[in-house]
Amino acid sequence: MLKYGTHTFVWIDEWTTEKGNQAIRSAAEVGFDFIEVSLANPEAFDPSAFRTSLQVTGMDVTVSLVLPDWAHMPEHPHEARQYLMTALDKTEALGSKYLCGCIAFALGRFTGSPATREERQVVIDTLGEVAEEASTRGICLGLEVVNRYESHLYNTLGEARETLAAVGANNLKLHVDTCHMIFEENGLYRPLVDCAEWLGYVHLSENHRGRLGTGTVNWDDVFRGLAHARYTGPLVVKCFAAVNPALAGAIKLWRPPQEPPQVLASEGLKFIRSYADRYGL
C-alpha cells in the first residue's frame, strides 16, 4: 500500500529538537503518513528527542542524507562507510526502516570528467558492505540520482540501476526525484518502467522546487510510469520552503518558493493523492 510523506525542507531549514518536533506535528495535522528526516550530522543527532512526537502523532519516519565532502565515497570509501554506519545506528534508533539520499557522493564534488568505471566500482564495493549491515537491521537503502549540476556520478536511473545490479543486494533500491529526472532523462515514463524492479523511493518535486502542479513536470507521465511499474513504495512531497544557506549553495536554489509550508504541504498531498487515484496506484 502506498504511503505519503513530506520532506524536512517543506517545513524547516534544519532538523533540531524543537524544529523537528514541530515539523512532525505539522505533517501529521496535514495528513501525511510519514516525514523524511534530513540527517545533516549523524554524530550529533539524538533520536530519543523525537520518540514522543512520533508516538503521539502515529507518524512513521524515513531518513535521508548527503555525504559530506570529506566522505565522498569514490575518494574516501572508508570515511563514507563509517559515516553511513553511524547513520544506520541513528536510523535504527529512530525506528525507521529506510535510509536514502546521496549515500554514495557529496554534492558539488566533480573531477571535470564523466564518472569512471573505477569511481563506480568503489561505490559498488562500499555500498555492498553497507547494504549487508543494513540488511541485518531490517533497513532498506535508497541511492538517489541527481542532475549533472550536483554530481557527475549518477545522473540517470539507468546508470544507478547498473550499480545496484552489480551490488546485488535486495535492500538497495533506486531513490527517484522527478526534478532531477527532467534534467537528464528522455522523458519521465520510460525510465520508471525500465527500472521497475529497482524503484524504492520517490520524491515528487517540480522543476522550481515549489508547489506541485505549477511547474514543468509532466505528472501524467510520472504516474502512468509508476502505475505500469507497479510501484507501491513511498511517495514524498518535496518542496523547499525552508532552506539553510549550505543547502541553498549546494543545490543552487536562489529563489525559494514564496508560498508557506502549510500550503505547499496540504496542496501537495492533495495533488499526489489525486494522481495516484487517477492511475490506480
Word description of this protein:
This protein has 281 residues and is of the alpha/beta class. The chain has one domain (3-278): Divalent-metal-dependent TIM barrel enzymes (TIM Barrel, Alpha-Beta Barrel), CATH 3.20.20. The protein has 10 helices and 8 strands. Helix 4 (117-136) links the parallel strand 4 and strand 5. The protein is globular.
Helix content: 40-55%
Question: Number of helical runs?
Answer: 10
CATH topology-level fold name: TIM Barrel
* Superfamily (CATH H level) name: Divalent-metal-dependent TIM barrel enzymes
Main sheet: strands, sense, barrel: 8 strands, parallel, barrel
Shape: globular
Number of domains: 1
- Radius of gyration, in Å, reads 17 Å
* Uncertain residue ranges: none
Q: How many angstroms separate the termini?
A: 8 Å
CATH architecture: Alpha-Beta Barrel
The proportion of strand residues reads 15-25%
Identify the CATH class.
Alpha Beta
Mean pLDDT: 94
> Which structural class do the helices and strands define?
alpha/beta
Strand segment tally: 8
Order of helices and strands: EHEHEHEHEHEHHEHEHH
Helix-strand blueprint:
Blueprint (H helix, E strand, L loop, with lengths): L2 E5 L9 H14 L3 E5 L12 H7 L2 E7 L10 H18 L3 E5 L14 H20 L3 E5 L12 H11 L4 E6 H7 L4 H6 L4 E6 L14 H10 L5 E4 L7 H7 L9 H18 L3
